[in-house]
Amino acid sequence: MTAKSRSKTVTRSLLAAAPALLALLAHGSARGADAPAADTADQVIVPGVERRDVHKPKYPSNDFEIGLFGGTYSAQNFGTSGVWGVRLGYDITEDFFVEATYGRTKVSDKEFRQILPGGIFTAEQEKLKYYDLSLGWNFLPGEIFIGKNWAKASTMYAIGGLGNTSFDSQRMQTWNFGVGAKLFLADWVALRADVRDHIYTLDLLGKRSATQNPELTLGFAFFF
Amino acid sequence: MSGVRAVSSLSTSPRVIAGWLACVLALACAGARAADAPAPVPVDAAASAPMPAASAGSPADSASAVEAKPLTAAVPVPGSVATVDIPAPLATVSAPTVPTPESVPGGDKLERVQITDAFIELHTFPGRGYPVFYVAARGEWVSIELRHTDWYKVRTASGKVGWVTRGQLQTTLAESGLQQHFGEVAFNDYLARRVELGAGYGRFHREPMIKFWLSYRLSDTLSIESTLGQVQGVFSGTTLWHVNLQAEPWSDQRFSPFAGIGIGRFHNIPNQSLVGFQQTNARMGDAIVGARYHLTDRFMIRADYAIYTAFVSDQRSLEYRAATAGLSFFF
Predict the structure, then answer these.
(1) ipTM of this model?
(2) Number of CB pairs < 8 Å for A and B?
(3) Is residue A81 in a domain?
């Protein structure tokens, strides 16, 4: 047995032994945590208080949000196109919310084909898909006054997160940052406007560089 | 395979994984027993809210009590407000206007509560930035129609509908001897959590990795977790997903370590600018250890270290190590 294969065997044995050691530790902690059971058989005082019927109330809530949006997405070097997508959000507190977004748009290498006949993509137009998970912070909550007798609740928000963008069979890790506004038409529906920058690194043009891809959208949000 | 380099090749990975499986199960069993002993009673904020009046056994009882005599300081008020003397003239003036719980609209399905605090403020929308447009006084009955985060939409007997913070309802309605501090309630909610969603950032074999996870607690100490990860290398990108079984032996603690194992898939796509690129799409096993810490409200921070083994062929497996840290929240 060579020294190399012996060391490999030792590593394997250690890896196999680690779970057993952990299990032993866990057993010990479980035994330590066992509390002595209270002896209720010889109870001296029997309480004569009538038991109240306490039930845990269940309030309906609408912390979740689902939404549709549409607008424009401007891909650096690859043109501006219409974008649409869906959002699923959750209001964690009155200040913070998270949301997952999925969006689709098109990118085109038309500009390059004028001087580079083969183009950069296999087809002139490629589908761009992105998804992300972002954390938002509501600031400037207040009311927007429309005319004299109509006031609607609204809030601005700053948002940022992580996700993925894919087109031309490439997948890019993507950061996004932006601001937006919500105008609540009722408890269950709001109008949203959103400005977002998607930042990802790309080397399709021969040089690896971060690209800025701003997106401007309008949409509806429904709370449930 | 360009852009990805194996750390080592382990032909005995199934054996190791079987060992980890045994470990996770043992931890889970041990944790379940440990968690039973201290018996942390999860008390929801709402759990203390159902009993309407401090002095009355039921809404009907309290209504008759209010009608029989005006509200005076003799009416015991729970906890912190017990020492507050109510001026008699004020009490006698407000007493005739106190409606019975039955007069509050909402039907049988809605919870009705009586305000025992001096007053509650009704906002136009759930948030501290929205204006207060109505104030409901002590003794009034309100029905609770909806909850949004920590705000409750209430309807008063006079038909005013507005949003009140949980804090205001809780101080007025805390009852049944449970003086729950607001922070403790959040912690108990944390202990009783079911679903966790989070995102993290870190290193996967020296390359930046992002990942999202969604976990569901099957019991106090055992949970199932699905993870989606993306590694952005200079020469290639890797997408991976896996489903883990996770044990959390000290699940009743604010700081709680966990361990898990799972299976999934590993998909490496080299950059198209590379010549002769070849994709790798393989099954994968993973083992993870980490810890989470309950920060505040619904937020947790979490850090973990994982070993991923991609079974690229019958003869060959690639192993990667990853460390990530992130933020998650629970439902």
Answers:
(1) 0.72
(2) 179
(3) yes
